[in-house]
Each structure stands twice: as C-alpha cells, then as structure tokens.
Write a structure and sequence with these properties.
5-stranded mixed sheet, elongated, alpha+beta, 17 helices, 468 residues, Alpha-Beta Plaits
Length: 468
C-alpha cells in the first residue's frame, strides 16, 4: 500500500527554531560584551551572559529544553573562539558558565512564582542564596580554566570567578525577573514632575561625586539616593537604577578611575570591593520589595473597604459617601434607585446559602452591566442594592430601571443537583429636579418607599415616588 510522505507544520517547526536562534543570539551577544570588558590578565569585568541566560529560562520555562541549552553552549564557545581563545580553554569556560546557569535555574524553579518575580521581601533573600550557590558552582568548575588561562592559583581563580558571577547575578537578574512590560513613562503615558524625578537626579549627582572625589569608600556615596529611589519607584525601576549604579562602580573599579588600593594585593582589594558592590545592590532591592508589598497590601485593604467582596458593587459606606458627593455636585436632575431581590429568603431556605450567594453575585453583576458609565451602584446590605443616576429625566430613569429589572430576571444559577434557580427584583425610584435642595437621604427614603410599593403590587416591577 502506498503511503503519502510525511508533512510537518511550518508553525510546529518554526517555534523551536525561533527559540534556538533567540537563545543563541542573546547568549552570543552578551558573551562578546563580557569578553570585551575583560581586563588584561583576568576574567571579564562584567559578564552578563550567564545571568541573562538564567533569567530567560526562569521567565519562560518553555525555553528550558535540551536543544536551547545546547544552543547556549555553542554560542558561548563561538564567542570565545572568535575573540582568540583556543578550543580547550573555551570548552572549560563554557562548561562552567552552563553549570552556573543550570544550578540557578533548578533552584529558582523550586520557588513559588511570586518569589521568582521577586514580589515578596523574602524573595530577595532567596535571590541572594541562589546567586551564591550558582556562582559557587560555576566557580568550582571554572577555577581550573582560570588557572590555565591566566596562570593564577586555584583559590584566586575560584574567588575571583565567584565574586564576579555573584555581583553579575545580583545586579542583572532583578531587572529581568521584575520586568512587567514597557513602563508607562516610556510609552508617554506617565510624566514625572521635577520633584518626582529628584531621587534619580540625586543618584546621578552622587554617582558623579563618587567618581570625582574618589577614594576607597567613594562607591558608597550614592547609597542614600538608591534608598530614596527604592522608596519612590517600582521594584523594576529600582532594580534597573541599581544595575546602572553597579555597572558604573565596577567599571571604575576595574579601570582604576577612583579607588585606591587598600592592600598590598590589588586583586584581593578588588575582590573585596566587588563583594561590597554586590551586597550594596541588595539594599535598595530589599527596600523596594518591602515597599511594593506594603503598597499592594494597602491597595487590597482599600479595595476591600471600597467594594463588596461578593457582588463587586460599591460597599455601603463608599456608595453613600460617593452618592452624597455626586448629588451635591450634580447640575441637572438626579434619580435614586433601590432594588430588592424577590423572595431571596426562600432561595436560601430551599437551595442553601451557597446558591444564595451565587444568586446575589450574579444579580449584582447583571445590574451593574445594565447601568450607564457615569452611574454609581452599591450594595446596601443583604439582598438590597441602590444606584444613583445623574443627569436623567423621569423617562430615562425608568428606562435604566427597566433594563436592570430585565437583566436580573434573566439571571440563572445552577444548583448542584441540576435545578436551575431564577429570580427577579422589585425596584423603587425617586427623582430630584434641578434646583431642588432635597438631601440624598430623603431621596433614598423616597426610593425605599417606592420599593415597598412595588412589592405590595406583586414584585418584579418598578414604582416611582415623586417629591410632594
């Protein structure tokens, strides 16, 4: 029997190929940058390739395939060979780089997703621990290559590799792991005032002062500005500013722009200062993380106080406060609407409170969708809701109320035993004409009277009570 030749989807093949090219290109480019930063006689001053590779895999675990790791391996070797290293040394250096990235990836993937995004204060401690272990793993493998390449002792090779890798991970990983898309200020949606930009300005000024004044402690001058930035900006922005600060300090350290040697062994002093820079970078990250957690908690508390957790409508207090303010500022006529779910107690008694809560949630959602964009809708308590409709005539207010009534009438909730639970609502309206000084509480009271009239007249209907 003749069989047709196998065909493969272009889409199926293109995605893995795109991933391979992406990983290889990023690693190759980052490696070339690191090699070009290498001082004569030792390892690279800044080696971003390992941290970038690790962050790519952690941010998108789909990339963590054997093929993509091999692509990174080849890219490391290719960058080294192009810049003059022999294959044996390139192979040893590459194995060390891959080992560090793999160890870091395995450890990061054991964390909760929020810790991988550094969104909790404890995440910064996890970042430090993982960076230490990954850097130590890479250094343990790469120390021998450093001995061959630069004729240094194993201890010096390990220490220098470890400190270089540690500082690179601590300054490069955070901006990538906390990236949430293009910031609003880059999109032109957010413009900072001069006072909002002061933390960045102070960081620039103090960094310049550290370069001009010099001395062994000059790298610490911008620390207050970094803390100010951490208290003022997002975690991503703080991480990016910390990266810029650290890169400037490392370049100054390597090229001797500002520092004096504290020991007879300049290499030992450089290693010590590298560790100091790495640990300084943790400070603003920790502050920004704590500040972000605090702001998130305040936002949750504010949301809980503002909105009803079951229905999503405004809470009673917030609705009454905003409705009062809306009435005071309204120029035209204003309508107040109250609604009550019909026979809700019998729904709870027959089907249980779980189904009753579902009914309330869907009623609230359906009613909110039926209101207009400028209207306020809130839950007063139990099965009772209210709305304030600014700028409406009597006919328009009745039309909105009818739309709400029909939306609630269409609500259907399925009971676990298969029964379909439906409901309806009675609605009451009151109207305030322009120039009327009636208070909001009086309007609400009239709407409540109209609501009870609707119940007396058979429910699932709308009644309106005009001012006397």
């Amino acid at each position: 029997m003749k069989t047709s030749p196998k065909t493969y989807s272009v889409e199926f093949l293109s995605k893995p190929l795109t991933d391979v090219l992406l990983v290889a290109t990023v690693v190759f480019t980052a490696s070339l940058f690191g090699i070009l930063s290498r001082p004569v006689g030792f390892l690279a001053a800044i080696w971003p390739a390992n941290a970038i590779l690790l962050a790519m895999m952690v941010r998108n675990p789909r990339l963590s395939t054997l093929t993509n790791w091999l692509a990174a391996f080849v890219a490391f070797i290719a960058a080294d060979l192009i810049t003059g290293n022999n294959f044996d040394i390139s192979l040893r250096l590459t194995i060390a780089n891959i080992v560090g990235a793999v160890v870091g990836y395995q450890l990061f993937m054991r964390l909760a997703p929020e810790d991988r995004e550094l969104s909790r204060p404890i995440s910064i401690v996890c970042l430090l621990a993982i960076s230490v272990l990954a850097a130590a793993s890479a250094a343990a493998v790469g120390a021998g290559a450093a001995l061959m390449l630069f004729e240094r002792s194993l201890i010096v090779g390990f220490t220098s590799w470890f400190t270089t890798e540690l500082v690179n991970m601590l300054i490069i990983l955070p901006p990538i792991l906390t990236w949430q898309g293009i910031p609003d200020w880059l999109r032109g949606r957010r413009h900072y005032t001069f006072f909002e930009a002061l933390p960045v300005i102070s960081l620039v000024v103090l960094t310049l002062c550290s370069q001009i004044i010099g001395g062994p402690g000059a790298f610490a001058y911008p620390i207050p500005a970094l803390i100010w930035c951490a208290l003022s900006y997002s975690l991503f922005t703080t991480a990016t500013l910390t990266l810029c600060f650290s890169v400037i300090q490392i370049i100054a350290l390597v090229h001797g722009f500002q520092y004096v040697t504290l020991r007879d062994d300049p290499l030992a002093a450089n290693i010590s200062l590298r560790i100091a820079i790495a640990l300084i970078a943790l400070g603003p990250l920790a502050v920004a993380s704590v500040n972000a957690a605090r702001e998130e908690l305040l936002e949750r508390l504010n949301h809980a106080a503002t909105f009803d957790s079951l229905t999503g409508a405004l809470s009673r207090g917030t609705f009454l406060e905003r409705a009062e303010a809306m009435l005071i500022n309204a120029n035209g006529s204003v309508a107040v609407l109250m609604l009550d779910v019909d026979h809700f107690k019998s729904i709870n008694d027959r089907y249980g409170h779980f189904v009753g809560d579902q009914v309330l949630a869907q009623v609230g959602n359906a009613a909110m969708k039926a209101t207009r964009p400028g209207d306020l809708f809130g839950r007063l308590g139990g099965e009772e809701f209210a709305a304030i409709l600014p700028g409406v005539s009597e006919e328009e207010a009745l039309a909105v109320a009818e739309r709400i009534r029909l939306a609630i009438e269409s609500v259907r909730v399925r009971h676990p035993d298969g029964a379909i639970v439906s409901t309806s609502a009675s609605l009451g309206l009151s109207l305030k004409s322009p120039g009327n000084t009636e208070s909001f509480l009086n309007l609400l009271s009239r709407a409540d009277d109209a609501l009870y009239l609707a119940k007396e007249r058979g429910r699932n209907c709308i009644e309106i009570k005009l001012a006397a």
